[in-house]
Amino acid sequence: MDTQNPSAPTPTQSRITGKNHPHAGGGAGIKTLAARFPEGRTRIAAALRELETHGYLRRERKRVTGGRIVTRTVSCNQPGRRRPHPEEPPPRRKRTPTPRKPLPAVPQPAYPAPALLRTATDLLTSLRLHDPRLLLSEPDTAHLAPAVAAWLERDVPRAAVHHTLTTDLPPGPLCRPAALLAHRLTTQLPPPPFTPPPPVRHPLQTCDGCDRAFRAADPGRCRNCRSDLQEAA
């Protein structure tokens, strides 16, 4: 029978043996790792710092029950990618903002005078005092102001424009108040006021009978000379 040598050194266990690796969620401190692996604390600390430098390891300080602060070591398979804790909820996905639908085109004034546009802007900003749902943003106000100016340019009183925009509004919240106002300003635009044509002013002509100047569309005789001819006939 073979005899065992009690003084023979015990062979060092391989570091790749599964039982030597710390379990998930187990201690990963230098003391804990030094107790599991044959390397000393200095080499283990240097290896951990190298892994942390390259993004494979990250240390997080967290307050636990009882007020104690512990350091949690998180390992990552890819540099810079955070490995979530089993107790943490999944990260929320950021919602992509829906692009805003542009407002429809609105009538434009024939002569956009600055004073007229200021009056139109003041009218639009006062709508919220009548109905809080008609609170408009600055871009929406700038888009609608020319349409209001087109109404005022057609001799529509300011009170009448205000009445058109605030009367018979639908109940409940208004999803896009600016779009509603743009529709009313466009579809209910009154026609321009009637203006009589200017009087026709004929050019000066020289009378063929008396050489007097008179206004007429065509050359010939003045009114007096034509009367004399009719009396002579």
Would you kindly provide a written description of the structure presented here, covering whatever features stand out?
This protein is mainly α. Among the domains are: 18-75, no CATH class; 114-187, no CATH class. 35% of the residues lie in helices and 9% in strands. The strands form 2 sheets. Strands 1-2 form a two-stranded antiparallel ribbon. The chain has a two-stranded antiparallel sheet with strand order 3-4. β1 and β2 (69-75) form a beta hairpin. α3 crosses α5 (138-153) and α5 packs parallel to α7. Residues 1-17 have a biased composition (Polar residues). This is Helix-turn-helix domain-containing protein. Residues 1-29, 73-111 are annotated as: Disordered.
Short description:
With 233 residues, the chain is mainly alpha-helical.
The portion of residues assigned to helices is 25-40%
Q: Average the pLDDT over all residues and give the rounded result.
A: 81
Oligomerization status of the protein chains: single chain
- Radius of gyration equals 46 Å
